[in-house]
Amino acid sequence: MHDPVHIEKWYVRWYNYNKYSIPVILTIIGSIVFTVFLDFRTGDIDFKSHISAINLLTNKIVAFYLFSIYMIALVQVANSMAFSKKRSPISLILFTLLNVIQVILVISYVGIFYREVEIRTDGFMLPSYALFSMNVMITGAVFYILATIFAWFYVDWKYVKIED
Q1: Which of 48, 102, 117, 162 has the smallest C-beta neighbourhood within 10 Å, fewest atoms?
Q2: What spatial distance separates the first Cα and last Cα of the chain, rounded to whole Å?
Q3: What pLDDT is stored for residue 148 in this prediction?
């Protein structure tokens, strides 16, 4: 049979080969989570999420937050790929800064829903699709936070730009 001492576990081998791509993988997953659950209606399917949820609110700044979250998610995919290739401190700082802004936007987005419930006197309750929208945003932010943590582990602090 195989000698277990000389054979690396598959996940150790995968990690050693892909460790610099982990921030990219987590960012892509987070970006997919942020952007894939948009409202749609087709035939008998009427999926409600972000747009339907923000249309219930009286505070319309939430639409700007949603737009900003989507735009940063798209930018961060390219940004994470650039970081993974170079691992430079400047790329890390830009990546971290945009992820911090993203997390602040998600906190603001979710907070508006809770404030709306508190301030409305008409007995407003959040429907299930609004709760789903909030959970999607929180899940995406968690992936971005994890991507940022891994990026800080893998930055090359001695990075020197080499002319091609």
Answers
A1: 162
A2: 48
A3: 94
Strand partners of residue 13 = none
Contact 164, 86 (CB under 8 A): no
pTM for the structure as a whole: 0.84
Q: What is the per-residue pLDDT for 160?
A: 60
CA trace torsion 96, 76, 67, 99 (10° rounding): -20
Q: Which stretches of the chain drop beneath a pLDDT of 70?
A: 1-8, 159-164
| Joined tokens for residue 132 | 């789903």
Q: What one-letter code names the amino acid at 155?
A: V
Tally the C-alpha atoms within 13 A of residue 59's C-alpha that lie toward its C-beta. 18
Chain position carrying tokens 């943590």:
149
